Amino acid sequence: MSEFFQDHPMLLFALEAGVALFLLIFIVVWTMGTAKKHPRPSRAPADHPSRASSAAPGQPAQAGQANHAAGQAHSKDNAPGA
Hints:
By secondary structure, the protein is mainly alpha-helical. It has three helices and no strands. The protein has a domain at 2-36. 61% of the residues lie in helices and 0% in strands. It starts with a helix and ends in a 5-residue tail after the last helix. This is Membrane-bound lytic murein transglycosylase A.
């Protein structure tokens, strides 16, 4: 076998490149398949905290969102180890 590679030294590099290309394609296909099984939501639900700032500047935020935001600020102030 070593005589064959001595006669054709670039064949070993081509074989290695082929294996690397196969692994790259395999990993990409594998991760794309996982994304189709567990799709991410395209938008956050209406009651999600990230949508709290979506109210117009002159309008007050909804009560549930204001209470939730106040609760987050309170929990950050009393974080353990702070």
